[in-house]
Design brief:
This protein is of the alpha/beta class and 331 residues long. It has two domains: 138 residues, Nucleotidyltransferase, domain 5 (2-Layer Sandwich); 173 residues, ATPase, nucleotide binding domain (Nucleotidyltransferase, domain 5, 2-Layer Sandwich), CATH 3.30.420. Helices cover 35% and strands 21% of the residues. The chain is built from ten helices and 13 strands. The protein has a five-stranded mixed β-sheet. Helix 6 runs antiparallel to helix 9 and helix 8 crosses helix 9. The longest helix has 25 residues. The N and C termini lie close together (5 Å).
């Protein structure tokens, strides 16, 4: 996830563009990424150069008060690690998951964080740090970063999917986020891709893309598959029995020819391809950019996704090279 603070957002409290305004290059800005598995902070200079990062694990079941306290801790530690003081930080940007009230800076509901409902993030951070606070959905923040400096640079339109604990999305057109009436445009993770035997999703519905292609889903399906692997042909049994099984294990095993892991990656790739095809057919963007922790799966994963898309989408909008990984990394 990329950290970017946009001065027009700080000044107006409403994000309108991915275009940077001229700023003093001696100034620093801090970005905070709140996730289901980790919380990250990053400090950038005014030209977008990443100066310092910090990561702390997130206990998704600890509740919002513990989460707010962790935000304070991560911000302070990142500033200290960079050798700076709070006075050198001009503003703080918070990229948060879930459904948000952009105007008031509140997380209304973050389904992958237990009991995170109506959490007043902006007010809390303003009170603690006395700095301007930019507040944005995490996928939209990452989308703007890729549109400004990353894989979507120069594209008039771009769709961004963040592949992590869940699946988020952001839509960019002419440098601006498409928010929609309720700020929910681009929530591709909660579009339906399965109707006949739909899997339950963390949002409470069934058949969502996230329930088939998010990291949590990959692991859930892996444990289900291993429970039926009576002959134990898969190398995934060892980490599963140790309760250390990760998505990385699944993708690594698939590359090494593990049949169960290969099937899991194939299912995940085809599910993501269906979500991307839906985006291509209703938005027709120049670029589809994939970010988040799961892109560490590498080129084989991307090739599978591209193959499914080219096989099933309208040929006019199914050019494989238009689907790519984010270039700003998971920072």
């Amino acid at each position: 996830m990329a950290f970017f603070i946009y001065p027009e957002f700080i000044c107006t409290n409403f994000l309108v563009s991915a275009t940077m305004l001229p700023m003093d290059t001696s100034q620093y800005y801090l970005g905070l990424d709140v996730g289901g598995t980790s919380m990250k902070a990053g400090i950038i200079s005014a030209d977008g150069t990443l100066i310092q990062t910090l990561l702390q694990p997130t206990n998704k079941n600890a509740g919002p008060q513990a989460g707010l306290a962790l935000m304070e801790k991560v911000i302070n530690l990142c500033i200290q690690k960079a050798g700076l003081n709070l006075g050198s930080i001009q503003a703080i940007g918070a990229a948060v998951p879930g459904i948000i009230d952009l105007k008031n800076g509140v997380i209304l509901d973050a389904v992958n964080l237990t009991d995170w409902k109506n959490v007043p993030v902006r007010t809390h951070l303003e009170t603690i740090f006395s700095k301007p606070i930019a507040f944005l959905n995490d996928a939209n923040a990452a989308a703007l970063g890729e549109a400004w400096l990353g894989a979507g640079k120069g594209a008039e339109s771009m769709a961004f999917l963040t592949l992590g604990t869940g699946i988020g999305g952001g839509l960019i057109h002419q440098g601006k986020i498409i928010e929609g009436r309720h700020g929910l445009a681009g929530e591709i993770g909660h579009t339906r891709i399965e109707m006949s035997r739909p899997r339950p999703c963390s949002c409470g519905q069934f058949g969502c893309l996230e329930a088939y292609a998010g990291a949590t889903s990959v692991l859930k399906r892996a444990y289900e598959a291993l429970a039926e692997d009576f002959n134990k042909i898969s190398d995934l049994h060892e980490p599963a029995e140790k309760k250390t099984l990760s998505c990385k294990d699944v993708f690594d095993a698939a590359r090494n020819g593990d049949p169960i892991a290969d099937r899991l990656v194939e299912e995940t790739s085809s599910a993501l391809a269906l979500g991307i095809i839906n985006i291509l057919h209703f938005f027709d963007p120049e670029k589809v950019v994939l970010g988040g922790g799961m892109i560490a799966a590498g080129d084989d994963f991307l090739k599978r996704i591209r193959w499914f898309v080219k096989d099933q989408a309208f040929k006019e909008c199914a050019q494989g090279e238009d689907i790519c990984f984010a270039t700003l990394g998971n920072d």
